[in-house]
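Dear support,

We are seeing what looks like truncated structure output for some complexes. This example has two components. We would appreciate it if you could run it in full and send us the complete token output so we can diff it against ours.
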Amino acid sequence: MRAQAEQKVGRTGYYGKYGGQFVPETLIAPLRELTAVFEEARSDPDFWKELRGYLEDYAGRPSPLYHARRLSEKMGGARIYLKREDLNHTGSHKINNTIGQALLARRMGKPRLIAETGAGMHGVAAATVAAMFGMECVVFMGTKDIERQSPNVYRMKMLGAEVRGVTSGSATLKDAMNEALRDWVATVDDTFYVIGSVAGPHPYPLMVKEFQKVIGEELHEQALAKIGKLPDLLIACVGGGSNAMGIFAHFLPMAEVAMRGVEAAGEGLETGHHSASITAGEPGVLHGSKTYLLQEPSGQIKEAHSIAAGLDYPGVGPEHSYLHDSGRVTYVSVTDAEAVAACFELARLEGILPAVESAHAIADAMRVAPDMTPDQVIVINLSGRGDKDLHTLRDYAPEKFGIVAGTSEER
Amino acid sequence: MNPSAGVDRFSKTFADLRARSRKALVIYLMAGDPDPAYTERLVPQLETAGADIIELGFPFSDPVADGPVIQAASQRALHQFTGIGEYLDLVRRLRDTCGIPLVLMTYYNIIFRYGERAFARHAREAGLDGTIIPDLPLDEAGDWRAVCDAEGLAAIFLEAPNTPPDQAQAIAGASRGFVYLVSLKGVTGAEKGFGSNLEERVQRLRSHCDTPLIVGFGISTPERAREFGAMTDGVVVGSAMVHAIHRAGGDGERAAVELVQAMRAAMDGH
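Here is the complete output from our reference environment:
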């Protein structure tokens, strides 16, 4: 099983025809060094033991598997469970990866971490581990995202990180990643670039998957213990795709487990204002890897749109492109409006405020659950919590907060 | 097709330079900054002023190897072209009068989307001589090298201060036209971080390959052009040129010519 999963990578760093290392020459030697260090750590039981220690004692793993009874009842079909990554320290799955990469940085003797962030969840998780390990941390963040995710900006600053605003392009996640790569080219000697998703040049897609797949591994045990069977369907939102890869990876060889990756349809696929790289994009090369991208026929990258800053990215991790082409995972999309509605549904039925990113997965589950039966089980990866989104939700749906539209007046 | 074009045009240029004991002055411009007609007027003037090779950038939405100056130029030029076909039309018009090598610099997605084989063929038909693709390192460039070799188009590769010696040799061996030595760890136009190892890198490569070695990134003054030119076969002046043109506004063409003349004079020891 394992050999087969490894074999499909084929050429180093490739998933079928996707992946690779499309970066300036200055980054080739550092990426090779990182690959070697990662491979060495990966086969070192002490590395995993130390990582597990931090995941348990610091991040609070394992994250619970929760049966969302009222949501399931309302949908009237499948039993819906939530994998509660929102309950991790820092409020999302991102901490699983940043602890792993910070341990590698320490192993390589690099005292400075840089990171890109969209919603700010990865930035917070990077700033958090930098504080814990006594490292310097600079987070690149588009100025548009700084505005709409201000609580996370304050969190990063309080943790001692420098938040560098990026104004180029669309001033969102794509541009933050451009700027982080430019910084890294100039600082590779003392700096470790902590990429937050299963994107970027090899070995990042592989490395981030290895650090996130603890989600699926835990779920396997929890499902057998609590439900007595494997889940029938896993659903996760996909921006770059790290939380989705985290819950999917372990189950990929198990044909009986179906999977849906949910992209952001923004204002609707037909409007062109969306972030659905797989559903509506074409293969291309950006940020170090060959993968599905939103682009013009000329090859210029299009600006993405989503209410969820963490999904507002015109690319996707290369392995997702491969899993789409192979048909192993079904990729669908959910609009801003559907995601916002799902946020309120989950808040009012289950007392859980999901991140608007994760709400895309909830909205999709609400679509498919009614057509399934109560003996079937859906597990949604609830990848993050929603506190950061209150401003965004208030602006999007003021009436839900009893606010008269266009004013700050409360009824 | 002109047999003295493509890879051969570089050979001729470097043979002429050697015969006159001169170092190559490679000038980078962003095509279409501020519009294609401007570029079309400027290139012949720079050839006359003493540029030996013109590196003509094609804008990309996400230029990760570029610093602020070329990023800004890229933004200005982005909407001047609906696609790289129009850039090749510009090259075709320049080729009518221009005798020096013309090199495209852009990012790989532009060529990938066009189709590598079709692009190489159309580029040569238009009169382009070579390409520099900063996000296409040697190990990802197998197909691109093959189609370029088939068309006689020079695929130029970059070598960096931290490239291990064996990899540097492989890059130099694969590069056609010239080898592009990156002076520093950083993006284009950087002002600090010059590798002190340039001389050592040059010596190591010289013992294995006779392809000309050209150094670029951060070469902003005539003094630096002379210093770096003395160690190599020539220099690339990019951000300094783009900045000089943009800053001079309506006098941009004159500023560009004067900068080429100043660089030329410094490199020729006047």
